[in-house]
# Entry
Amino acid sequence: MSNTEHKNKGIVTSIIANLVMVKCDGAIQQNGICYFIDGDKKIMGEVIKTVGDIAYVQVFESTTGFKVGMEVEFTGHMLEVALGPGIVTKNFDGLQNDLDKMTGVFLQRGESTFALEDDKKWPFKPLAKPGDKVAAGDWLADVDESGVPHKTMVPFKFKGEYTVVDIAAEGEYTVLEDIATLEDADGKKHKVQMMQKWPVKLPIQVHVEKERPSKLFETGVRVIDTMNPILEGGTGFIPGPFGSGKTVLQHAISKQAAADIVIIAACGERANEVVEIFTEFPELDDPRTGKKLMERTCIIANTSNMPVAAREASVYTAMTIGEYYRAMGLRTILLADSTSRWAQALREMSNRLEELPGPDAYPMDLSAVISNYYSRAGRTTLRNGEKGSVTFIGTVSPAGGNLLEPVTESTKKVARCFFALSQQRADSKRYPAIDPMESYSKYFEYPEFEKYAKENIGDTWVDVVSDLKNSLIQGKEIYEQINILGDDGVPVTYHETFWKSELIDFVILQQDAFDKIDCNTPLERQKYMVELVSKLIATEFTFDNFEDVSAYFKRIIYTLRQMNYSQFKSDEFKKFERELNELVNERKVEE
Amino acid sequence: MEKRAFQKIYCKLTNITKATITLEAEGVGYKELAYVDGRAAQVVKMIGSKVTLQVFSGTDGLSTDSEVVFTGEQPMLKVSEHLSGRFFNAYGKPIDGLPEITGEERPIESPSVNPVRRVQPNQLIATGVAGIDLNNTLVSGQKIPFFADPDQPYNQIMAMIALRAKVDKIILGGMGLTWDDYLFFKNSFEQDHGLSKIIGFINTTEDSPVERLLIPDMALTAAEYFATEKNEKVLVLLTDMTQYCNSLSIVSNRMDQIPSKDSMPGSLYSDLARLYEKAVQFPDGGNITILAVTTLSGSDITHAIPDNTGYITEGQLFLRKSTDVNKVIIDPFRSLSRLKQLVIGKTTREDHPQVMNAAIRLYADAANSRTKMENGFDLTDYDKRVLRFSEDYSRDILAVDVNLEVDEMLDTTWDLFQRNLTKDEVGIKQEFVDRFWKKD
# Structure
């Protein structure tokens, strides 16, 4: 920690958009935070490059009206966020200002607000007792954060072993009150509060081990859970051209995911999409706790019209909050929409710094920055043996829908799941438009997952799903042949195979995100439908000609889709299932 | 231009490029407005005491001893009720031969709306065009562009939609409009409304390209005034945003910035987002809806301009000539309104989403059948019926000259389903089929 007593000062010498050069009278810290004194306002900036005594500062707000000769104060620390109870339910900007505390409809320059509540008292129950030996990240107390089992921890910045000298009794305290005294190895005493600060660009590392993911992370989206599963602590990304349903899919995951904490980083995306989350989440019931979904959600909104430099910070702010809850042994899901906007923020700044550009004018270290970021996700074992996880799903908005552009390519190298959205599927309204051929989940081949699936889903689950995937590939191949040879140029059985693959597509892959029932399919129901469909695929039917095939399968698909729209195992559901059985018997080849 | 008393006049330019000048000056604020021999200019870069200004009308004829006066302010627009019915240039000066207006001066670069103060858009803007109302519903507070080739009648269709839409103000931002198109807008608005609710900020092809950069800010500043002070519903038309982007690239090029894709500046996304995100539903009832035009070259939507636009706007509309019926339609495949989910089936009839999707799916099937036909394969009975459906659908629903209420569009589509297809083929939820499929 640097000495914060003496603050370095500086004077503005040059201004190019939001890059400002400052002549500094003392040491300059890379990524150090400084404030520009603009009349009665203080505008925040971050040092991104130093040449001699000139600091290159990216300013987090508009520089309109800045003058050469303006005064600058350096704080001596990096960009930090406040961590403590009160994060969930909040809407922050990229710098963790509480947006709800800001006055007025428009965001005023230089306005900053405290991220947590300074006067709210939280129910506190000590876990540690005087004499305990503790280290950074160890749990000192339970705090009930409106239902979330929050932990007050030994501040992450503390190095080495400490002894608990005293700890507050059970009761209610604010985040700024001293709740414990810890003594370090040199006998120096440190007061600890429920709130601590951490620099966002550094990962929080208080775990003993990061493991290979093995547990399925349920999302309720069939094409993900069944076909391309993402695991707890895993990473995935969704690239897709605009209009392919990227955002709808992300919202579905955030609503349905089996996580304790949901963090949404709206990074440089449309404001109305964030408003949709603001409006919907407080209304949505959380099926797992019976409360509102918002009570375990935190939103970091740095929309596309908000300052670019803060956009870059927003993804780090979100990840740091995720890691904070992971250290409490909780499962967090972090969704970032979109990482391309973040990369573009890096590009804009690299451009102003006149760095030599890499591919598509992105900075040369883009790939390293992205992989570094993704590596912060994971399932970890804490010092007390508990496990916590950060599962990360980012979206990528490839320019021109071209998946060979630098951001997509760099992401592909690090993310383990790839949910490719296809324009063609979107055009024919086959939603979610996740392409079954292009997409993959590397986790599907993990022996750890295979073992997990055997024990928790079904003995043959992995094989059944592999067979479905194979049927899809067969169907696609045959579709191409039919296109070349014509409907009557191929045997009738080809049509049957093709329509069986359409059956999988319509019943398993496609899902109506706007239907109350179909939008979320629990794993039990997915398993039921997968087995039902697999049985149909294995059944032999008899047809006279190819026209019969399509007509027949359309009826089957129609009935199965009605099942998808009905409450699971309700009378209606069973009625359609009986209809399905009758239909199957019409054309089934008897053995 | 207006000079204020006791202002320092600089008259030693050190650099002149086609769009910028540089001089030594002190006490200047970033983005401050200045006048160079009476031409408006804005500070874009300051290195020590060296100040670089972008001269909006171009630097032709300026000399190293031209007089430079700094105003101490950013570019401003005078706003008041008197804006209504008037046409202005990029600086907010009248071009309709009438006197200047009075009003409060506002900086044209305003802060962004706090996202938590925004209200979710929830009002349908009916246009009577089924390609929009039925398939790609326009919602107040939305921003949506037409992606059009230069030869398509986008300005005509935009003017028609604007005039049918139920809004309080229509603000036209014309960038690089041909003089003919400017007169077309002016005349069609005049015929319909006597101009009372129209405001225009016009830069024609006769004006300097750099001036265009001011147009959207001017139009949106006026829009914000009416939406926040008067709580009005404002529709902003921006045509053509491609011209705006080209001007951005001219300026960034003159400032020696490294271009990114398609020689556009690396900040194109943020530059466009700043404008389009002015579309908003305010808590007090006022709103700003933006309908823009992005012209494409050779229908290429992977070009940096339409590509970045597509990621910012809430959908896009494509025009297409439907050859079966020889009419302009709004392409049902590629067009999309992202906010339609907020109103369809909610403020419109419940069956709206399913009818819309079924019709488009069948229209897609018809496209496949057509390919089959063109490749010389035999058509099945289903192919023939679905082709018939698509032709009816293009003519009775999609053609832009059809003017219907949303319920009529739905009823007509049900009729077309029933005339050509079976219930299984249409594949709509049973409850709607029970209600709307006419019993024989």
Remarks:
- Chain B touches chain A through 82 residues (CB under 8 Å).
